[in-house]
Structures are given as C-alpha cells and as structure tokens.
Amino acid sequence: MRNKNHVQTPLRPAKIPDILKKYGHLLTSHENVPGKDRIYPNLKKTNNVLSVLFPLEEHPVHGKTGLLATEKYIDGIVSKYSYQWKIIIPKLGKLNHHISAWGNDPHNATWTRPEYRVESEPHHHHHVSGDWKARKENWDVWTLNEAYWNNRGILNIIK
Predict the structure, then answer these.
(1) Rounded to whole angstroms, how far apart are CA atoms 124 and 142?
(2) What is the dihedral of CA 127, 4, 18, 154, to 10 degrees?
(3) For a disulfide at 134, which of 27, 42, 91, 128, Cβ 3.0-4.6 Å?
(4) Spans of all domains in the chain
C-alpha cells in the first residue's frame, strides 16, 4: 500500500526528545553496553548528521537488540537515512546481526540486478533477517518515528 504521495517528499530530521518521550519505555541498558543511560553515550548529533543506537528491551527470539538510526542532512532536510533493527549483543557480522532495516541509499544503477530494484526507489526495506541483500518496496517507514511505530515498523514486527 502506498501512503506517500511520491518518493521525493522532503524528510525532516528526527527529534530525539520526542522519540524518547514516545518510545522510552521500549529502551533499556544491557551489560556490556557502554554507559549507564538508556541510550548509547556516543550519540552524534550535528547540523549534518545524527547517529545513535537505541538499546531495546530483550526480544524473545533475537535477544539483545537495538535500533541504529543514522540520518544525514543537507540544508536541514534528511538526504539519507538508515534505520537498522539489529542484534547488538553479542557482536556479530553485518549479515548475522541484521533483523530488519529501512533506508534510502539508491540502488538504481544500470548494473543493479532486477531482484534488488524496487518501485519505491530509493526507499527500500531489508526485510529478511540475516539476509542484507533481500529488498522490497518501502512506502511506510521513512523517518525514525515511523521505524518505531507504523504498520511496518519494529513495534509491529516484534509483537
């Protein structure tokens, strides 16, 4: 289902205080995770980038997971985003820690294999746990808020 008017809609930066207010009850601290706050202490937020890992309550199947949010900005608009739900403990390789991810890095080059092209380009969803290559359309999760709460966000996946 398409709920976006078109794929070129300008996206606004995430507001971390709003995210923490809405979804703070899902966050936790795990042993072996730096810092004592519910959020990684290496939160990076500048005029050009946001990078933060939100440790989530333990998942019954995947264990200790987190939502890694990365946004890059140009003139106050999100130019690139990636929201990755992944296993954070124990440390695993990129393929093994992957649960689900949404992003807008383009995959429309002429050499891109047909199975990796999506109608919602550049927005896509890496939807197969453990398989970073698998992609499908993403009309629903284009912001950090939507990565948490949406009919396709992690709150509905982890239920």
Answers:
(1) 9
(2) -20
(3) 128
(4) 16-157
